[in-house]
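COMPLEX REQUEST
Ligand: dinuclear copper ion
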Amino acid sequence: MPRRLWSHRHLIGLLLGGLGLLLAGCAKNAPQDTFKPKGTEAKRIDHLAVPVFIIAGVVGLLVGAAVIVIIIKFRQRPGDDDRVPAQIHGNTKLEIGWTIAPAVLLAIIAVPTVATVFKLADKPRDAMEVQVVGQQWWWEFDYPGEGVITANELVIPVGQPVVLHITSRDVIHSFWIPRLNGKKDAVPGRIQDLNLEADTPGEYWGQCTEFCGLSHANMRIRAIALSQGDFAKWIANQKQNAVTPTDAAAVAGQNVFKNRGCAGCHQINGVNVAQNVPLIAGAAPNLTHLMSRDVFAGAMFDLETPGCTVTNTEPTGTPPQCLNRAALEAWLRDPGKQKPMYAKGGRGMPNLNLSETEIDNLVAYLSTLK
Ligand code: CUA
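STATUS: Structure written out below.
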């Protein structure tokens, strides 16, 4: 008797696994779904990928079906043991046929593919420029035309072509917001351009897609597309220096920021970098307008309490009542516990051993930075 390769258990496991994968593709909340493009470049990719996927799918199904038919039809049957199938060598017509058919198919697909590659690389006219710096483990966004710098959240105006100049400060990362465009590597010492345009206001999630160490999976990107008017307000707000704190806890918190190590890496305009100069980045996110963002630490944590009804696509910043105090305090208490980092090697935020009072004061101060 021929040995059975697949037991029923194997088959059931395979079926369940396959079904699980299939159902995973039906997720409704899929913010990084490349098949739901929301911008010019992503749509170009989609218009190419979908027809190619259909052609490849049809070919794949035909080949798969043929393999299954042949496996069943020509399987070894009881009593066949000593019979050897008819031996043949080559079939010129068939071989020429299955060489030419794929070659023609690939040549046809190459035409729109090459055209799309060139179109994606075209620098759009009147583009807004944003420098993107990847680093372990967060993204910095620098608007050189505006003197604005921010982190984790890429804010762009709707319907406005944007050119990202992407680079890295340490190792190779890769920038990808699937609903806006394809990937581009962030390579130290090189600047690589990527065009983006969002056609609908809203948030678009992305993440680093090149393994870059401990927190590679926690190096996320949140892009926010605002109407032209809201974007102008956002820029105007970002250009302001940090608010001078007035209440006692916030004043004490500012002293914690200055004297307990925070200011060694983070910058706050008008506090540890000069006022009225274009913002410059340190080794960590610039915090001048921290509360205008919704996320922190590589867009890994919500800066706003989940379920808070005041959304932060409005440019004035998160009202303090929405602050996700628990997450921010946990982060300040021991960052390495919240997110794997290698602070001793200078990568990621170290534990500054702040006291609970210092943490409370620091949070009071940070929540003024709108
Ligand atoms: Cu940065 Cu992976």
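REMARKS: Residues 312-318 have pLDDT under 50 and may be disordered. Helices lie at 8-24, 40-73, 92-121, 228-238, 248-259, 325-333, 335-338, 356-366.
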